[in-house]
Every structure is written in structure tokens, then in C-alpha cells.
């Protein structure tokens, strides 16, 4: 019975995903696109319509017979919350099934606050945006924050720049405050999944810290302990400045020292060296840059990182890499966090960018 239920849910998600992608489509087109029988499509569409997720939206052009009824997604039928918990501030977005932001809230995090105080503030901001929609239509909350963390359990492990958070079960604690399902992931992973892109790409995020989210072969890479992407702690200079992680000469520490000295070109060039190392190791063909440091002067960072890649790649024409800046800007991480909730609903799995892409196009 469990297998039959899983198959039904998989088929329903496939149909829902197709309706959303097509914007308007017919049952015949759904059968052709999914490979399901007309009878199966009819049952699924009837169930989705009864649940308010899908609605008739007109008639298709006649093709010799009766005009086909067109179907569309009802974006406001369900909602998800995406939250970014940073070191100095938090951001909360209320997102509909179409990936569009309906409400937003933010707040600074005071220095010295305990994890409990921060989670109380986060829960309050989430409740504020949820007050605008029926609670029964809320699917859950996705939270993205700095690592290291265990994505499967929602527990943080000595997160750099977050003293006192080691061992905090962020997912369970927040779920208890909100009485809603909560998914937790690293901010960089949420960022890489916040927009459509190459099957082999990296999201490089320079904000209070520096990390990278990775998609390889079309799947997000979290690693054995779901802690992949500690990109900023590659050591470039063993005699360099002390990093917050305890090591010396980490890329993050070098970039931060350059920025503190008001040398953004040097910081961008250093970041380019780190990204070139990433390219040589993983052979990605797309790099998306994000974070406040980058967004303060996006073209400077994009151009200098792209130049560093060309200079440090043996055959840059063969190993061409597209370097861009996150299309959602400062909201990229929180939007990707909402995708942690929306993606499974559409059967998108790790392809969350495909779920959120329409709002960015």
C-alpha cells in the first residue's frame, strides 16, 4: 500500500508540476507530457480541482472536435515561508505556489543574543507574515543559515560566527514554536537552488561569511554529513590572518581583510582565485555570485572573477564558465529556503530552481 501511495503522490506531483510550468494546459496535453493514461489524468485533475489547487481557465482552440478545457494552477491555494537566518539579521518571505513573494519581513539580530532569543524573533517575524493567509493553507517553513550544520536533523555544529549555536536543534525548536513543518539547510545550498541553471554550477556567497552551494550532475551536493560547501575555508596562505574558524589564511579571512582595508578589487581577485580552484576541482560551467559584499558593486565582482577564471584556466575556451550575479539579489537565500518546502510538493526534488524560476524570468 505504501508503494501505491508513493506512486500516486509521484504522479500527482508530476501533473501539478506540468500544469505550473505550462501555465495553461489540457488533460490531453498532460497525458502526452507525463505518459499517464487519460483515466489517471482525469482522476488526478479532479482531485487537484477539489482541493482548490487547479482551476479551469478557458477553452483551447478547436482542432476539429470539442474545444479542450484548459487548466491552470491556483497560486494562492497554498503558501510556504522562506527564512534566512544570518549572523547579524534575518529575512522572512511568504511565497505562493507560483514562487511569487506576497509578503516580507526582516529584523536585525543584536550582538550577544542567545539562540533562544534569536529563534523567538524569527518565529515572531514568521507569524507576522503568516497572519495574512489562512493557516491551513501553509505547507511549512524553510530556513537557511550558515553552517556547519546537519541538514537531515536541522542541528547546527560550531557554525562560524554564531557562538552558542553548537548543537542547537534549529529545525525542532522552530517547529515547536510555530507548530508547522520546518526544513533547514545551509544558506549557500538554498542560494544555489533559488534559480534555474546549469546541471553543474556553484553559488558563491560572500556576506558575513563565505561559502558555496553546489549542484553537480543536476543534483545538489551536500556531502557525507550534509556539510559540503565550506568554500571559504580553503587555505590560500598558511601564514595569513587568523580566520573565525581558527585556521590561518582562509579565503574568507583574506577577502574580509581586503574589504576591511577598502580594497574591493583585491578581495574580488582573491575570490576569483578560490573560484578557479573550485573550477579545476569540480569542472562546473556556471558560477552565480551573491551576498551583500557582491551586491554592493555586482559588475566589479562579476568581471574580476570572470577574468581570474580565464587567466587561471589552461584552456578557457574549452572550459568556458558563465559568471553571473544572483537574479533575486538580497532575497536569493530566503527564496531558495522557501523552495525547500515547495520543491517536494511539485516532485522537483533537488531541482528547486525550476519551481522558483518563473518569478525571476
What structural class results from the helix and strand content?
Answer: alpha/beta
What CATH calls the topology of the largest domain is: Nucleotidyltransferase, domain 5
CATH level 1 class label of the largest domain: Alpha Beta
Contiguous helical run count: 12
**In the CATH classification, which architecture of the largest domain applies?**
2-Layer Sandwich
Query: Largest beta sheet, briefly?
Result: 5 strands, mixed
Q: Give, in order, the helices and strands.
A: HHHEEEEEHEEEHEHEEEHHEHHEHH
CATH superfamily of the largest domain: ATPase, nucleotide binding domain
End-to-end Cα distance, whole Å, is 40 Å
Poorly predicted runs of 5 or more residues: 1-5, 357-361
Strand order of the largest sheet: 5-4-3-6-9
Number of domains: 3
Primary descriptors:
single chain; 361 residues; alpha/beta; Arc Repressor Mutant, subunit A; Nucleotidyltransferase, domain 5; 3 domains; 5-stranded mixed sheet; 12 helices; 40% helix; globular; disordered N terminus; disordered C terminus
Report what the structure shows:
There is one protein chain. This protein has 361 residues and is α/β, with parallel strands linked by helices. It has three domains: 2-73, Arc Repressor Mutant, subunit A (Orthogonal Bundle); 79-185, ATPase, nucleotide binding domain (Nucleotidyltransferase, domain 5); 196-326, Nucleotidyltransferase, domain 5 (2-Layer Sandwich), CATH 3.30.420. Helix content is 40%, strand content 21%. The chain is built from twelve helices and 14 strands. A five-stranded mixed sheet has the order 5-4-3-6-9. A five-stranded mixed sheet has the order 12-11-10-13-14. Strands 1-2 form a two-stranded antiparallel ribbon. It is globular and about 75 Å long. 43% of the residues are buried.
Amino acid at each position: 500500500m505504501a508503494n501505491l501511495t508513493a506512486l500516486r503522490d509521484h504522479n500527482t506531483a508530476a501533473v501539478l508540476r506540468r500544469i505550473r510550468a505550462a501555465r495553461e494546459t489540457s488533460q490531453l496535453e498532460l497525458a502526452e507530457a507525463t505518459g499517464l493514461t487519460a483515466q489517471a489524468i482525469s482522476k488526478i485533475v479532479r482531485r487537484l480541482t477539489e482541493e482548490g489547487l487547479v482551476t479551469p481557465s478557458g477553452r483551447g482552440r478547436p482542432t476539429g472536435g470539442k474545444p479542450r478545457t484548459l487548466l491552470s494552477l491556483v497560486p494562492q491555494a497554498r503558501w510556504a515561508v522562506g527564512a534566512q537566518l544570518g549572523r547579524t539579521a534575518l529575512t522572512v518571505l511568504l511565497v505562493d505556489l507560483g514562487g511569487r513573494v506576497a509578503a516580507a519581513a526582516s529584523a536585525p539580530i543584536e550582538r550577544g543574543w542567545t539562540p533562544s532569543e534569536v529563534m523567538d524573533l524569527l518565529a515572531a517575524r514568521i507569524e507576522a507574515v503568516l497572519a495574512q493567509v489562512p493557516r491551513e493553507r501553509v505547507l511549512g517553513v524553510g530556513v537557511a543559515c550558515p553552517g556547519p550544520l546537519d541538514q537531515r536533523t536541522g542541528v547546527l555544529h560550531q557554525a562560524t560566527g554564531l557562538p552558542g549555536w553548537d548543537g542547537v536543534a534549529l529545525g525542532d525548536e522552530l517547529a515547536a514554536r510555530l507548530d508547522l513543518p520546518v526544513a533547514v539547510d545551509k544558506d549557500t545550498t538554498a542560494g544555489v537552488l533559488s534559480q534555474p541553471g546549469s546541471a553543474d554550477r556553484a553559488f558563491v556567497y560572500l556576506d558575513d561569511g563565505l561559502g558555496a552551494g553546489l549542484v553537480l550532475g543536476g543534483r545538489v551536493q551536500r556531502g557525507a554529513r550534509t556539510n559540503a560547501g565550506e568554500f571559504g575555508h580553503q587555505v590560500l596562505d598558511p601564514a595569513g590572518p587568523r580566520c573565525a574558524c581558527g585556521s590561518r589564511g582562509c579565503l574568507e579571512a583574506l577577502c574580509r581583510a581586503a574589504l576591511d582595508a577598502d580594497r574591493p578589487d583585491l578581495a574580488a581577485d582573491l575570490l576569483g582565485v578560490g573560484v578557479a580552484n573550485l573550477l579545476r576541482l569540480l569542472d562546473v560551467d556556471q558560477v552565480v555570485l551573491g551576498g551583500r559584499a557582491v551586491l554592493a558593486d555586482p559588475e566589479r565582482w562579476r568581471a574580476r572573477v570572470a577574468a581570474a577564471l580565464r587567466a587561471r584556466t589552461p584552456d578557457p575556451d574549452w572550459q568556458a564558465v558563465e559568471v553571473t550575479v544572483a537574479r533575486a539579489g538580497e532575497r536569493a537565500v530566503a527564496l531558495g529556503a522557501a523552495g525547500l518546502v515547495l520543491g517536494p510538493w511539485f516532485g522537483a526534488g533537488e531541482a528547486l530552481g525550476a519551481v522558483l524560476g518563473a518569478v525571476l524570468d
